[in-house]
Amino acid sequence: MNIMQLGINRAFALLQAVCLTVLLAWRPGLAQEVDDRVYLPMQTSINALMVALVDHSAHELWRAGSAQTLSALDWRTVEQHAIQLIASGTLISLGGTGVADAGWVAAPAWQEWNQRMTDGALAALAAVRATDQDALNAAGSALVDACQGCHQAFKPELPTEGFVHTPHYEMSAQQDITLRSTIVTLAAEPALRREFERGLTDKARQRGYNVVASYDLVPDVTDVDDPDFVGRLVSNGIGAVLMIRPAAVGPGTTLEAVRNSVSPSTYANMQAFAQRRSRAGRQDLLAVVHLGIYLISVHGAELISSGAVWLDEPNPSRQQGIERLQNLIVANVDAVRPAIREHLGLPPLNR
Ligand code: HEC
User: Fold this and answer.
1) Measured from the CB, is residue 58 less than 6 Å from ligand 1?
2) Residue 105 C-alpha to ligand 1 middle, in angstroms?
3) Does residue 158 share a domain with residue 210?
4) Is residue 164 in contact with ligand 1, taking CB distance under 6 Å?
């Protein structure tokens, strides 16, 4: 390459950079002044819109992005929700009847996050038009970033009007409503994690749980509070997580291992139960496993139930030990399931 060409290339690169800056600075829609046309002011609040429109349509996009298959009819439904989300971007840019709405929409950062959400919805619509599920999934991830970013900057701890994201609207149309959930085993080597999650998922499905294993979705999770982890679950349509953590394994194992992980009353119940069993001739614990159930949303992970199971059978084979733990875990989750459904405002199951 000679000097002349180099010069031209440089000039071209500079020109590109200038064009990019101009493009970035000039976002149509971002900086639009209100003209003097007559329009209807918003007659509902941003809180209500978030739940009825934004959250609702985004969940449909996330669910479709991670669905096993999508029929032609499913794609039509996705299109409907992508359009709803695009339009809701404009609506939440206008403000509304909520006490804080006018202040929020006046902030430039608000409109920037809003533009990012709308861009995600536009990308979802483009994916629909191309019948491209991978692109839909990618658009879903971009959406999660926009929701999380804006919430971090603006959303109050408690919603101003008390509207929250569960139960989701579409749930009320279903027969037996189940939250799509996943199982995450922490601190296990990958092969064991896979085997354990797969077996447990099968058992849970037989008991009517809408559950998938997580080893493919989140191979490297270490902490539930990691926004990346939460984002990946949300964009895969996951609303709840069962977290399984081996707290102690091997000789000398005691319930003490989970003392600080569960409530004092749960701990007392566990101890009483273990004592009754040891009087019946079983003493040594082989493993203590901590269980946590979390609700997952764009706002993060919320712990709603915590407990433990333990293995005290003498000399089980490895396979028996795993089976026994899995059965105990399913039984434990079954026991708290009605309370969790009530907490979510979901009706009891018809079975
Ligand atoms: C431009 C900013 C912004 C964007 C983008 C945004 N939100 Fe919100 N969202 C808010 C604010 C602010 C509130 C609280 C409203 C209030 O309390 O009055 C809220 C509230 C909510 C609520 C109800 C409150 C709760 O705690 O459950 C849900 C659900 C929700 N948003 C979901 C979403 C989802 C899903 C997305 C992305 C697809 C999203 N939001 C994108 C600003 C935003």
Assistant:
1) yes
2) 13
3) no
4) yes
Q: Closest Cα to atom 37, ligand 1: which residue?
A: 147
Ligand 1 mean position, distance from CA 49 (Å): 8
C-beta 165 within 6 A of ligand 1: yes
* Greatest distance between any 2 Cα atoms in the chain: 91
- Give which of 89, 81, 85 is closest to 32, Cα–Cα: 89
Do 199 and 288 belong together in one domain? yes
pLDDT in tens, 119-160: 999 999 999 999 999 999 999 999 999 999 999 999 998 889
Q: Which of 165, 184, 217 is the last residue of a domain?
A: 165
Q: Of 165, 189, 205, which one is at a domain's C-terminal end?
A: 165
Q: How far is the CA of 147 from the centre of ligand 1 (A)?
A: 7
**Mean per-residue pLDDT pooled into runs of 10, the chain (351 residues):** 45 46 44 70 94 93 90 94 97 95 96 98 98 96 95 92 72 62 86 91 89 87 84 90 88 82 83 72 76 90 91 81 91 91 80 57
Which residue range(s) make up the domain with 188? Answer: 176-344
What gap in Å lies between CA 173 and CA 351, rounded to an integer? 18
